Amino acid sequence: MNVEYVREALDLARQGRGQTSPNPMVGAVVVRDGAVVGRGFHVYSDLKHGEIVALEQAGGQARGSTLYVNLEPCSHQGRTGPCVDAILASGVTEVVAAMQDPNPMVSGQGFRALHQAGVTVSIAGEFTAQAEKLNEPFVHFMRTRKPLVTLKAALTLDGKISAPDDNEGWITSEIARQHVQQLRHESDAILTGIGTLLADDCRLTDRTGLPRSRPLLRIVIDSLLRIPVHSKMLDSCRDDVVVVTTSAASADRRKAIEGRGARVLVFDGPGGRTDLHSVVDWLGREKFLSLMIEAGSRVNWAALDADVVDKIFFYYGAKILGGLQSLPMAGGAGRRRRVDAIGVHDLIVHNVAKDEFAVEAYVHRNR
User: Fold this and answer.
1) For this structure, is 51 an active site residue?
2) Which of 51, 186, 294, 356 is an active site residue?
3) What is the pLDDT of residues 319-347, one digit of tens each?
4) Global pTM?
5) I need a labelling partner for 338 at 20 to 30 A (CA). Which of 82, 225, 235, 319 fits?
């Protein structure tokens, strides 16, 4: 096993960012007699999995070769035939994968089928964590049947997201905001609250200009359907906006919003609010692998308090607002005791730009 080819398979897989959902990113390298004879990666619109692209490029040179791939080859019929069958037909004699597929329809079956047919199979364990991180939303979805929920926020050093009087300007730099666009590009859905929409008249679009396998689904939490029918969100709707409300909302307002092309979902929660658990469950049923929350103080806390957030990505600008009226990242009732604070783990600090950083961490879930 040559670890450099495993790294190359991972690098190839990354070229499919934003273009594979609801499938995972997969890269493959075919090596024969110490030379690469085929390379490939998956994009959803192309149908072919990364292994197939690489094998087709290799052609007859695949016979007697080693296939390096970041994820266990599939063994079931989906939109395409099983990759295992194509591997066996090509004459590949060894398969090296970075991780086992968490999909219950595969999960070791691909490896077993290859092994039973006489193909040498091994897992490059030193790359497993990296491979899981690469396909984090897919891995999470396959294990939970729910999207990976990331709470994103831009904060001052003292944890504020909004000033009491004037919020013109930005907390973070253009570089940080471009990074946020990359996160949006890699997300299947994005959610905000009606308060943020009314204050900013935001679109919440993916502005990277990069190709996607599916449109970024934009979700607005709006318990009384206060969204203006001529907001930028609805003006830009192309079957990619969902407004989540409650049964207390006006039927006439619902009809008007649906007339603009948006879908209205009714999910009643406690206290007359929308139920965030139902939103996440619905996204899971629709096979959305990831959801990013970009909202205000109240929705941020509601999501954390409801225990639907899996990870955080906080961008910190080199500024201090201070004051009791500047809004914190998460408002609401909060926790009344330190011992009840919501904990995070596996924290990573990213250098974003000069005097700016971001914190990525995973939330301790109560499940």
Assistant:
1) yes
2) 51
3) 999 998 899 999 988 899 999 999 999 99
4) 0.93
5) 319
